[in-house]
Amino acid sequence: MYAVKIYCPEATNRIKYIFDVFFGNLIICNYEFISDKKEFLKADGIKINYSEDDFYSKFLIKPFGLLHSNNIELQRISIINYESYPAFFAVDDSNLPFDIFSAAFYLITRYEEYLPHFKDKFGRYSHSSSIAFNAGFLNFPLVNFWAVKLCYALNSTFGDVVLQTRTFSYQPTYDIDMAWSYKNKGFNRNAGGFMKQPGLSRILTLAGLKKDPFDSFDFLSSLKTSKIPLYFFLVSEQNGIYDKNILPSNKAFRNLIKSVTGKVLLHPSWQSNADPEIVKREKEILEDITGTNISAGRQHYIKFQLPETFCDLLNCGITDEYSMGYGTINGFRASISSPYKWYNLSTEEITDLTIHPFCFMDANSFYEQKQDLAATEKELNFYLEICKSNGCDLITIFHNNFLGSSPEFSGYRQMYSDFLSRI
């Protein structure tokens, strides 16, 4: 594989990290740092001068300074236009009008979430505090767009070797917060539910005369997708206000987990946010049920705090994390749609935790954005087209209850089927 040469007098951890994201992930090539000017000038092929010294200006990107710092401090951000895309950290006398690497680092690491910020009612970082939301680019994987532009600029400048970016892929994922609406909940929960909301549907379901409205598992098994679907199961041993699934001691629930046609992963409970030992216990429960090692998860209610939650997950043996998105609005929380390693800003370390960002969740469209079905379908198709046309990875979240037979979510099943047919 071709190697891009990069002149950089001092390759800090931040620099090593973000160049690996661009040239080890988003753009398909290898790269190497060169700190000696003479050696760099003698090198052949595609070369980038990432320094303040313009001794080689054929392709020069001047550093803004963020990647040479080891502090976490408020940054003054002014949005500029870069070939119809927003950008920031402007620099002068450079082939690009901004430090693309510093800007991408700021977004991907969630730098702003380490600064003082407003939390929503669930104690989560609020999307309304983010630069992506306030500058109007939350709905775009901006870092992927920048990578495409950088690739084009390098190809245009050097021409002898043609670099390429990633190709489109789609990963379906399902959160199983509540496997059944009525079945296997026991007498007390069903009696309490009936007192709050009397209805014939519960009686018919419990009598075996009607399928549970949240049961969409046969439907999910019938779907044809290019990638194995991922099922995130909530297996809390104790129910709470936000943890309402069937208890993992229930035989029917255990059998369901073992029967799904996909990969079973962990959905750490709300309770586990306050105690990492609960994450370990829930991981062990799921491993006992499936007989497999569980090394990936997504936080229930998308509740996480940086860096604490991700550190806890790593300590529990989680190596792949699927929570990078918002639980309040759809879009690209880290402005990227491709998997990448998590960089812990508090320790300035590149970690072994791989982040898999999502951009669409059915519950956001329905409960938070309060969209009707037509608007939701339009939004979902928007993300599909954006990702397909720019070689991005698309991850969606659907819940089993949205794809069942509940009248509340009428039309979602057909909408999702139609969406899959367009991939």
Count of β-strands: 14
Low-confidence stretches are none
Summarize the main sheet: 5 strands, parallel
Rg calc: 24 Å
Secondary-structure-derived class: alpha/beta
Spatial gap, N to C terminus: 29 Å
Number of helical stretches of at least 4 residues: 14
What overall form do the CA principal axes indicate?
Answer: elongated
How big a fraction of the residues is strand?
Answer: 5-15%
CATH class category name of the largest domain: Alpha Beta
Task: Write down the domain tally.
Answer: 2
Question: Would you identify the CATH architecture of the largest domain?
Answer: Alpha-Beta Barrel
Mean pLDDT: 94
The CATH homologous superfamily of the largest domain is termed: Glycoside hydrolase/deacetylase
Portion of residues in helices?
25-40%
Please name the CATH topology of the largest domain: TIM Barrel
Main sheet: strand order: 8-7-6-14-13
- The ordered H/E elements are EHEHEEEHHHEHHHEHEHEHEEEEHHEH
Characteristics:
four-stranded mixed beta sheet; alpha/beta; five-stranded parallel beta sheet; 2 domains; TIM Barrel; 14% strand
Tell me about this structure.
The structure is a single chain. The chain is of the alpha/beta class and 423 residues long. Helices cover 33% and strands 14% of the residues. Helix 1 (13-26) packs across helix 3 (100-108). It contains 14 helices and 14 strands. The mean pLDDT is 94. The strands form four sheets. The protein has a five-stranded parallel sheet with strand order 8-7-6-14-13. Strands 9-10-12-11 form a four-stranded mixed sheet. The two termini are 29 Å apart. The chain has two domains: 3-158, no CATH class; 169-179 and 214-421, Glycoside hydrolase/deacetylase (TIM Barrel, Alpha-Beta Barrel). Strand 1 (3-7), helix 1 and strand 2 form a beta-alpha-beta unit. It is elongated, with a radius of gyration of 24 Å.
